[in-house]
Amino acid sequence: MNDFTYYTPTKYVFGRGVESKAGELSSSIGLKKVLLVYGGGSVVRSGLLDRVKESLTASNVDFLEFGGIQPNPTDDRVYEGIEICRRENVDGMLAVGGGSVIDTAKAIALGVPYEGDFWDFYAGKLKAETALPVGVVLTIPAAGSEGSGNSVITKLDGLHKISLRTESALRPKFALMNPELTFTLPPYQTASGIADMMVHILERYFTNTPDVEITDRVAEGVLKAIIEEAPKVMANPTDYQSRANIMWSGTLAHNGICGTGRAEDWVSHAMEHEISAVYGVTHGAGLAVVVPAWMTFMARNHPFKIAQFGRRVFDVKAADDKLAATEGIEALKAFWGSLGLPVTFAGLGIEAPDIDLLVSKLHENKGEVIGGYYRLNRSDTEIIYRLMM
Ligand code: NZQ
Ligand code: ZN
Question: What integer pLDDT is reported at residue 173 of this predicted model?
């Protein structure tokens, strides 16, 4: 096991009705005026936004509304939000929504106290250390941004979708998690979120770091629980207990607990981010296409951990590593297929993907040779993208 520092300062408040604590928690961290960030309208239709506003008012926390954030959020809204916060002396963010809303709130939080262009952090020009406090009311278990130090934003000029990873600067101060808020999710979003959280675990699971039995077993345990709970939420979207289990899995998958003491991979995410940047697909659905292709390449070239996944998560019996890996991949594809997720480009509605463009953007954004579990160059990533056809 590698040495590590694990610091996750987010206060999670979980259960029915917890959104009513938005005002109290904002006030408890000293906020007087927040930017209330939300998406395309689901929180307006469900009445959630009104409840959050009531809670803020009851705790004397002033707010400004900043809605209309779209999935795969873009830098234009971040610049707009930064301007508003500076002009109106906003002292914190309250994100009501999923990854796209939370990541936009985080980017604004980072940009307000910085005199230069907020994109400098995403471009890797400097390290993110200071940001306004961010609170979250989560409406979709998927991206795990409620517990991560990350923010993923697309720069419209050139369609560069970049994940900024910070150790603690961008971890939310609090996350309010009411599973009932997820009852209204469309099945495709529920399923895509499930794929995303599983892949957050897998990106950490596929490692060459030896002697990581504890985190391997934590990862396998959460994966197995997701596989058991997922069909229940798909069959009965208002089943509180399975929604609750899926919601908490999404946080555990990405708040770092599954990655302690080990090198991580993250190539599948990098490859998917190019697809969702160019074609605007739902991130988790994109991963359901990328990951089996990436794993197939690994089954041929470096199968040992893929084989372990097949044996321990899907109870594959094959003694040969390549065979166990292949059977594990088939089981994973069948599982995602059973949730209604695509496993090919065509399934994502992309009939003629521009593979050359995806490969060149990927290596322009991430470097010539990428990956923690297995080092991949341009010809390798081209093979993997072609395996998605
Ligand atoms: O915009 P509204 O109307 O709210 O609708 C949203 C949106 O259309 C809808 N939705 C959310 N909660 C709902 C609901 N509809 C009905 N009922 C509810 N309770 O779901 C749609 C998707 O929302 P979005 O926020 O985009 O989903 P998600 O949480 O999957 O976030 C995806 C974004 O997060 C990034 C992805 O790349 C993508 O840009 N990621 C962020 C990460 C992080 N910050 O740590 C890590 C991830 O790997 C990921 O890359
Ligand atoms: Zn993800």
Answer: 98
User: What torsion do the CA atoms of 184, 18, 178, 31 make, to the nearest 10 degrees?
Assistant: 90
Ligand 1 centroid vs 99 CA: distance in angstroms?
4
C-alpha angle 5-271-276 in degrees, rounded to nearest 5: 110
Helices (H), the chain: 22-28, 42-45, 48-58, 75-88, 99-111, 119-122, 187-205, 213-235, 240-254, 267-279, 283-301, 304-314, 321-338, 355-366, 378-387
Centroid of ligand 2 to alpha carbon of 277 (angstroms)? 13
Question: CB within 6 Å of ligand 1 — which residues?
Answer: 39-43, 71-72, 97-101, 103, 139-140, 142-145, 148, 150-152, 181-182, 184-185, 189, 193, 196, 254, 269, 283-284
Give the ligand 1 atom nearest the CA of 39: 1
CATH class assigned to 187-387:
mainly alpha
| Interval between CA 288 and ligand 2 midpoint (Å) | 11
Q: For the segment 354-368, what is each residue's pLDDT rounded down to a tens digit?
A: 999 999 999 999 999
CATH fold, domain 11-181, is Rossmann fold (3.40.50)
What residue ranges of the chain are covered by domains with CATH 3.40.50.1970? 11-181
Domain with CATH 1.20.1090.10 in the chain: 187-387
Kindly give the distance from the C-alpha atom of residue 255 to the centroid of ligand 2, in angstroms, as a whole number. Answer: 12
User: Quick check: pTM over 0.85?
Assistant: yes
Minimal-distance CA residue to ligand 1 atom 34:
99
Relative to the alpha carbon of 196, which ligand is closest? 2
Q: Which residues have C-beta within 8 Å of that of residue 121, sequence separation ≥ 6? A: 110, 114, 127, 128, 164
Separation of CA 201 and ligand 2 centre (Å): 10
Q: Which atom of ligand 1 is nearest to the CA of 199?
A: 48
Q: What are the start-end ranges of the H helices in 236-354? A: 240-254, 267-279, 283-301, 304-314, 321-338
User: Closest ligand to 153 CA?
Assistant: 1
Exposed, middle or buried, 260 (CB in 10 Å: 0-12/13-18/19+)? middle
| Cβ atoms of 230 and 182 closer than 8 Å | no
| pLDDT tens-digit map of 296-355 | 999 999 999 999 999 999 999 999 999 999 999 999 999 999 999 999 999 999 999 999
